[in-house]
Structure formats: structure tokens, C-alpha cells
Amino acid sequence: MIEFDHVSKRFGSIQALDQLNLQFKPGKIIGLFGPNGAGKSTAMKMIAGLNQPDRGRILVDGQSPRQSRDRIAFLPEIDHLYGWWTLKQAADFMRSFYSDWDDSRYRQLLDFLNLQEDMKIGKISKGQRAKCKLLLVVARRAPYILLDEPLSGIDILTREIIINTLNLDLREGEQTIIISTHEIDDVENLVDEVFFIDQGRIVVSGAAEELKTTRGMSLVEIMKEAFRNAQKQA
Is the dihedral of CA 199, 152, 195, 62 positive or negative? Predict the structure, then answer.
């Protein structure tokens, strides 16, 4: 389980997280939803141990994120792969660095995503790079997979392929997948639980299907209503 206990983080005059409390239960596909600047990426980086809270604490299975780095596979929003790498070189690096690398899974996803190992990262399309980045993360058997804006700026067909990849074999209950995005309609039918975040605080959370049924709305509509109410109260 991942826990945020009264976590606050400020960058200069920007309050990124404000006394944030939440729990991500294991074995779920979880959506962390909100507009740009809501605090999603800050929260994800903190789970990955890349940023530290100013106040409060974060626990990953009872340990600090820095103590749990080998249990976390993180796909950042920024493009972090070297352009001179081939996909094979990137995979060889990941294989040597992480003991949870699953080569059979890598081979399966390589074929499913229609990628070739001799592709040079710096010379392929943005959609292909997005698929390469996803492949290198989900080929690990890490207990926690963090995907920060995995659909941002890519075409609709590539988005569909990425969603299908996540559906392929990740619903086994042995991994927790957290997807941070503002493009909710693409993952609405994928997530089990959702947390809507705005101005560094959770404004709505719960089981995705239960929220849709009780409110008679899509997740996109629920987010719009929640944020309108939050702005009125601000």
C-alpha cells in the first residue's frame, strides 16, 4: 500500500500539494486525475523518491520511497531515453539494472506493440517513442507501476494501443498501476479506483464504477462537477 499522510510541497510561490491524504491499495489500477498543475506529477515523483515532502510523510509498504525504489517502476512525463540508443540497448540497460526484468514479457510486448529492437530512439516518431517508454517500464515485474501522463501529446491510435497494452496482462492482482492523467476519457474503462486532485488536495475519490453508478455520470463529468464546486468554495 502507498500512503500519503498530510503531505505538503511548495515550489516557490506554488503550493503543489496541500496536506494531502490518500491511500493507494494494492492490486488495483488507479487513476490520479486532475487538470494540469493540480499536483499529479508532484505526487508521482514523490512516490518514486525523486522529490521530498516539505511536511508529512509517504510510505510504500511501510517504508520510505527511497527505501522502496526497487519496488517501483516509474514512467515520467518527460522523454528520458537517450536518442542514440537503439531499443535493444535501452532494454539491455534496464535488464542489467533491475532484477525484476521479465524477458518473456518484454518479448511478448515487443511483438504486441509492433516495435523492432534495432529502432534508434532519436529517429522514430513520438508515438513509437511513447510505446518504447511504456514497454521498458511494464516489462518489469515491479509491485508498483507509475505512469505519469502516458497519453500526453500522442495520436489517438497510439493511445488505443497503449490502453490495450495495459489491459493485456496487467490485471493479475499482483501489481498496482497508478495512471496520472488529465485525459480521463481514454482510461475511464480501465481504472478500478479514482482520485480527483485539484490544487494539491483530493476533491473526490472512490471505486470508479460505484461513482459512475451512484452519480449517473461519466468520470469526466464527475471531475468537471467536482472542480466547479472546488472553485466556488475557493
Answer: negative
